[in-house]
Amino acid sequence: MKKMPLYSFLLLILLLVIWEIAAGTMSELVLPAPSVIGFTLLDGIKSGYFTEHIIRTSSEVLLGLLFGGLSGLIIGILMGEITFLRKLLFPYIIASQAVPKLALAPLFILWFGFGMTSKVVITALVCFFPLLESTVTAIQSSDKQKLELFTMLNASRLQTLIHLKIPAGMPGILAGLRVSVVLAVVGAVVGEFIGGSEGLGALIIASQGMMDTPLMFATLILLTLMGMILYQMIALLEKKWSKPYKKEI
């Protein structure tokens, strides 16, 4: 994980100081001070108040990312390899992505109930398209000279896919996965907004009902940290995969 540059850290301190001063002139209901939010966050972590909600949202994010990402990867590889399949499915996939997920959430809850399943389905649907799009592009963008070399060596289509197209396209695929990771957090929270009693998204709705603005900000910080940690994990994996190919450029 990259360290924060000194000037970025100083900018953060400056913004927090300005925020602290500005919050002193307003009601805590409108804009709580960073110090108040920090105490709320620490108290919630120490008491275990956030633990159940963090586990629930993390589970939804990881499961949705697993199913949505795996589906996007497999279908993306097939669409990248088979022109007919790409032309057949792509219009329908684009149409499905044009529908706002927030509008679909009540329907999924009606179908799958208020439990974790509906949240995982929403998250998977959100994660699906970025990885599919990046996978199709990566599979189609293989080096022509290397493709010709594989053809000269009488490599089969499957061998070319496994040993050339997928490894060479992995940096692009992982770039799509980075986008999917961030969207996975959004998808899980959207599902919890619509119907759920557990999870960080449900906690935001509860804090709104209680008019507990510091708790709302503390929950948002936890969601931000969750997204950043997952993003950095994929970024490290992408860096590892991309290194051999960057040397070839």
UniProtKB/TrEMBL annotation:
Transmembrane segments: 61-80, 173-195, 215-237
Any single Pfam family the record assigns to this protein: BPD_transp_1
UniProt keywords, alphabetically: Cell membrane, Membrane, Transmembrane, Transmembrane helix, Transport
UniProt protein name: ABC transporter permease
Domain ABC transmembrane type-1: start-end pairs: 54-234
Family the UniProt entry places it in: Belongs to the binding-protein-dependent transport system permease family.
Alphabetical list of SUPFAM superfamilies matching this protein: MetI-like (SSF161098)
Membrane topology value: Multi-pass membrane protein
Species of the source: Niallia oryzisoli
Primary localisation category: membrane
Subcellular location: Cell membrane
Record bears the keyword Transmembrane helix: yes
